[in-house]
# Entry
Amino acid sequence: MIIRPRRLRRNPVIREMVRETSLSVKDFIAPLFVKYGKGRKEPIPSMPGQFHFSVDTVVKEAEELWSSGIPSILLFGVPEYKDSTGSSSWAEDGIVQRAVSEIKNHLPDMVVITDVCLCEYTDHGHCGIIKNGDVDNDSTLELLAIQAVSHAKAGADFVAPSDMMDGRVSSIRNALENGNFTGTGILSYAVKYASAFYGPFREAADSAPGFGDRRGYQMDPANALEALREAELDIEEGADIIMVKPALPYLDIVRNVREISLIPVAAYNVSGEYAMVKAADMKGWIDGKKVMMEMLISIKRAGADLILTYFAKEAALELG
Ligand code: PBG
# Structure
């Protein structure tokens, strides 16, 4: 007797019945870049289809995402000025603070998440305070906590620390509790690798480090056990959702983290992953839409509950 697995692939109806993984717009979180100024919707060259918005125009974009069924956005700020401590990141009238409150005014039910980090706001482009030529962990924690509280005050539903300093989840959690923001959650970039796949983002957010690199705080791509340790620590410190980043070169890590985590796991399909698909599609070398859908289902299949992706709007269209 021949075993014939092909019987389950005979037609679309059967294939759909036995499909193991499904993708939904409800899985998506769309990242958006907000810049100072007014009336902006400027294309980001290295990320075709993505834009720099100003506070007024980002509201319209959020409305479009919401009406296509996408429940959530992640905001990155590109401030007007930078300094050594990234002080524009916690200003009450800062770019992200204003964007959050405008979006929440128009779309109270949309889940608004803010990236908490200093690199977009510091003149040296590192994710923390520089002391003796190095990024100082503990003094950075205080500033991250202040920034997170200012986002919560503006109405953010979740804050998402992406700096990879040790102890930042507990420091932010404490600050939120002390400020009475007990309902504000933490989506922690728990497992963030030092990756060349962030290239287009750093151009878009103007956040490339002015000297050195981020290998002193982001993780070594060769390490897998360390990912579990980072995930465990952030869960213990009070994260509500943990994230693995980037997604595609780290699907094994997404799976490993999914297996030990009792809280939701997100994966960040980052700028470089997006840009490569767009570039190859523009050259006519791949079918960009099909590759996009295959990538997204692979991230889901690996175990991600949520996917942060620049493809969110386009994929929502495909999903119908
Ligand atoms: C840091 C941050 C980065 C990304 C998200 N948050 C860049 C970095 O660590 O250098 C990358 C996102 C992407 O590449 O899409 N605030």
Notes: The chain has one domain: 20-211+219-319.
